[in-house]
């Protein structure tokens, strides 16, 4: 069992974590015709907007209440109202998702109360969903903001009805964590549909931030889960939660609708995907398609081919808890040793990590602990540390702004797990030093050491 401790430094140096409001805003970006909005200063929104634009390389819909110093002190009702009025008039969204920031949380703005006043004053906004999530950025991290937003969506839109709901035996709710990419969601959707089931993702970044070009310009999100999809989540026969962070939303959905859930804390590797195939086969009543039996064989073969290069390697990882758990478990399956683990926030999975100590810290802590390691794993802000350490660098998580295709990376399923073996294994092979004529022998020959030469 790992020991979890927090860094005792006076300040953060080269931050690893992103803020809670960014996690909440990105979850809203997985809702169709939604306009995410940060209740705070313009600077809070601008920095987050730049970060997400660089990661996804797409136009990111994100608005602000533009709180000034005076407005912050006096209260933000007028700013919130004006922002909502402008967004509805210009964008005609189905939903406006509001995330708080440290400025307005410190003041103590009652945004839920503001929304009630605004609805009374503007009955013409009755068909626009207004969802508020408390996400102060002076506590918690990106991974905390995401499930809080999903929880609010369920509590605000899904009616409580455990007995009167007509179940669709083919429908499956999917609650993906923020550590999964749009490419992961597309892969997972294909897997579920191949069993004859209908997956409904909440949120669904694969519909909004997958890099497609729309036919017409829209100021809101391009796609994702619709408001109606969320309202009818109680009709599903099962909810599949992906990541420990989604346990809370899945439990609330079960209490409200009676829909049971199954949680996968990771979907990279052989064992977790065997469990997934067994579950889908059981609830669909269909055998596992030959396509996945073949992919499983390919993954096992890739593990056999790759373990020569992974075995005994020392890995340093810095990531959000669920992503850290996913990568560490997969690396350990292949024979690696997790020499350093740094994360951003607390989570039940941290104590189960295959490492002595997990540090809630920053990239400076990760760099110090990664000395002598064979691979550094974190997001793009760790690239300078890898250069200084002179070790291979595998990018994972958000942001990933110095490489193309961040939204299309796949790490789930048999195929995603197999391709990860090839990608990281090739990094190990490229980093190996080929012996030369002068470096081939590490010990002197018998004649050079003054020893008798054995007779043949």
UniProtKB/TrEMBL annotation:
Domain (Nitrogenase/oxidoreductase component) ranges: 19-427
Ranges that cross the membrane: none
Residue span of region Disordered: 436-456
Keywords of this entry: Nitrogen fixation
Pathway: Cofactor biosynthesis; Fe-Mo cofactor biosynthesis
GO molecular function, one term: nitrogenase activity
One GO term (biological process): protein-containing complex assembly
PROSITE patterns: NITROGENASE_1_1
CDD domains: Nitrogenase_NifN_1
Record InterPro entries: ChlB/BchB/BchZ, Nase/OxRdtase_comp1, Nase_comp1_CS, Nase_Mo-Fe_CF
The keyword DNA damage is annotated on this UniProt entry: no
Keyword Chloroplast: no
Pfam family, one: Oxidored_nitro
Role of this protein: This protein may play a role in the biosynthesis of the prosthetic group of nitrogenase (FeMo cofactor).
Family statement drawn from the similarity comment of this UniProt entry: Belongs to the NifD/NifK/NifE/NifN family.
Name by which UniProt lists this protein: Nitrogenase iron-molybdenum cofactor biosynthesis protein NifN
Lineage: Bacteria, Pseudomonadati, Pseudomonadota, Alphaproteobacteria, Hyphomicrobiales
């Amino acid at each position: 069992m790992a020991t979890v401790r927090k860094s005792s430094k006076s300040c953060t140096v080269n931050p690893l974590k992103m803020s809670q409001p960014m996690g909440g805003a990105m979850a809203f970006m997985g809702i169709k015709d939604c306009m995410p909005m940060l209740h705070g200063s313009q600077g809070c929104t601008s920095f987050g907007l730049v970060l997400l634009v660089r990661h996804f390389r797409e136009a990111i819909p994100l608005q602000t209440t533009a709180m000034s110093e005076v407005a912050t002190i006096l209260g933000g009702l007028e700013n919130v109202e004006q922002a909502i009025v402008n967004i509805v008039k210009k964008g005609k969204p189905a939903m406006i998702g509001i995330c708080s920031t440290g400025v307005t949380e410190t003041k103590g703005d009652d945004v839920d109360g503001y929304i009630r006043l605004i609805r009374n004053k503007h009955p013409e906004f009755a068909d626009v969903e207004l969802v508020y999530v408390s996400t102060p950025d002076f506590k918690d991290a990106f991974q905390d903001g995401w499930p809080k937003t999903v929880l609010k969506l369920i509590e605000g839109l899904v009616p409580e009805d455990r007995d009167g709901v007509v179940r669709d035996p083919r429908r499956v709710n999917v609650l993906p964590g923020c550590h999964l990419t749009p490419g992961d969601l597309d892969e997972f959707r294909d897997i579920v549909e191949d069993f004859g089931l209908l997956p409904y993702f909440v949120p669904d970044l694969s519909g909004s931030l997958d890099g497609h070009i729309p036919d017409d310009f829209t100021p809101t999100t391009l796609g994702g889960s619709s408001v109606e999809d969320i309202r009818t989540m109680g009709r599903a026969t099962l909810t599949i939660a992906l990541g420990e962070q989604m346990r809370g939303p899945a439990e609330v959905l079960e209490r409200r609708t009676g829909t049971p859930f199954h949680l996968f804390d990771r979907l990279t590797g052989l064992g977790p995907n065997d469990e997934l195939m067994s579950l889908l086969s059981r609830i669909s009543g269909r055998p596992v398609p030959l396509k996945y039996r073949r992919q499983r064989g390919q993954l096992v073969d890739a593990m056999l081919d790759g373990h020569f290069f992974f075995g005994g390697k020392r890995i340093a990882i810095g990531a959000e808890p669920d992503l850290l758990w996913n990568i560490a478990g997969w690396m350990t399956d292949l024979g690696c040793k997790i020499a350093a683990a740094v994360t951003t926030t607390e989570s039940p999975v941290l104590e189960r990590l295959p490492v002595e100590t997990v540090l809630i810290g920053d990239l400076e802590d990760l760099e110090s602990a990664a000395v002598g390691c064979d691979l550094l794993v974190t997001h793009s802000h760790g690239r300078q540390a890898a250069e200084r350490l002179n070790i291979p660098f595998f990018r994972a998580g958000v942001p990933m702004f110095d490489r193309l295709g961040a939204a299309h990376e796949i790490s789930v399923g048999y195929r995603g797990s197999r391709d990860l073996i090839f990608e990281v294994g090739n990094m190990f092979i490229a980093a190996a030093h080929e012996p030369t004529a002068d470096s081939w022998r590490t010990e002197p020959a018998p004649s050079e050491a003054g020893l008798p030469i054995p007779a043949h």
